[in-house]
Amino acid sequence: MTGPVSNPQVDSTDPSRQLPSESGLFRSALKPGVSMREVWAWAMYDFANSGYTTVVITTVFSTYFVGVVAESRSWATLAFTMALSLSYLVIMLTMPSLGARADARAGKRRLLFSSTAGCVVATALLALAGPGDIALALVLLAVSNYCYCVGESVVAAFLPEMARPNALGRVSGWGWGFGYFGGMLTLGLSLGLVGWASSRGAEAQQYVPYVMLLTAFVFAVAAVPSFMFLRERSAPNNRPALGWLKRLAQAWHETGQHFKDFRLLLICGAFYHAGISVVVTLAAVYANQAMGFTMAQTMVLVFTVNIAAAAGALTFGHFQDRVGHKRALTITLFGWIAMVLVAYSAVQVWVFWIAATLAGLCMGTSQSAGRAMVGGLAPTRRLAEFYSLWTFATQLAAVVGPLSYGLVTWVTDGNHRLALLITGLFFVAGLIVLTRLDFARGARVRDTVPL
């Protein structure tokens, strides 16, 4: 990664606050030699994989598993969150080693392809899960989510290779914004299929399998441009291979010794992503159990959230590059806290819709901001490894967040409102940690530590 672009009119100590010197909104954001076609191909992966989280994790399969596969057993929500938590735990333990190996061999593209194939196949196989097939559904859910998380981590590591340091926020936002449109496409097609089948008297176990096949197909087709045009720019760093636990321990030790602001970002991200993971994983369950939404109404709700998230990601990146990453993320976390309070107090449906729209805006901005901040603090020749550490933090959050929500609903005999209110504490904790982070200091030291 090249150093920050010098500009006497802005604060040169913070790369996130520098303005592009070239003309043209898009071209000035990219490093020399990076074409718009390649950035489009990179963003297409966000477009492709967003359908998986939107349909499988957030909307259709989550409610289908609880209501149909597990036949509304009292522990169904907890089982669903535990299967996801297991996949996140495996990601936490293995991803830093996978990322380090990809950096050592310049193999990000190969890892991206294999993880994509795994997610597509496992998602298609979810079509086999019917009433009572609890074990099959949970295993396939865990496998598909593991592969999704690997791909999500690896594709993020391409960002600092394409975007200038002063444009990480907006380029990250392009990807996230494009991704939400992909989620809306898959969800829209699924909504059309559900509406058509429901109008003919079909039950969920008859049409949900086709929704899973549709989701897998869109993922596979939309990911093709990424493998055709996305280039591997980093040279192999040839660092020696280590066992996955040893690599994880060494990487964590290095963040505390040499990359202290990056470690603070990891801790901050772990806290606020715990809250986000609750929204992503359990929004449909909350809408159904606390607000009485039908599956069709829930799908429309999530569609609306995706529109708000796309708007937030596409516009907030420019704001982030101008005001600085830390300040932008602070504003977003305050927005999440406000969303939790509105949703908790929502009794009327229209109030809940306001909370859902606010959640979409915050989701798009906070996820994009985090990915850009990692790009500004990660060493140039260890991008996949450091993005894997970010994945470690966010997947730890994905274990703790939904699991804590599930435990609260279990202990309180289904009190989803209280579970959501407790979720707000994760955003408060992230905000507290963020106050200690010095982005400019972290950016200065990122490439001063020898491999």
Identify the notable features of this structure and list them briefly:
451 residues, mainly alpha, Growth Hormone, Chain: A, disordered N terminus
SS class: mainly alpha
Shape: globular
Termini gap: 15 Å
Low-confidence residue ranges: 1-23
The CATH topology corresponds to: Growth Hormone, Chain: A
Number of strands: 0
Task: Bin the helical content.
Answer: over 70%
Total individual domains: 1
Strand content: under 5%
CATH homologous superfamily? MFS general substrate transporter like domains
User: In terms of quaternary structure, what is this?
Assistant: single chain
Q: Helix count?
A: 16
* CATH C-level category: Mainly Alpha
- The sequence of SSEs as H and E is HHHHHHHHHHHHHHHH
Largest sheet: none
Radius of gyration: 21 Å
CATH architecture: Up-down Bundle
Query: What does the average pLDDT come to?
Result: 83
Explained architecture:
The protein is mainly α and 451 residues long. It has a single domain, classed as Growth Hormone, Chain: A (Up-down Bundle), CATH 1.20.1250. Helix content is 77%, strand content 0%. It contains 16 helices and no strands. The two termini are 15 Å apart. Mean pLDDT is 83; it is low at 1-23.
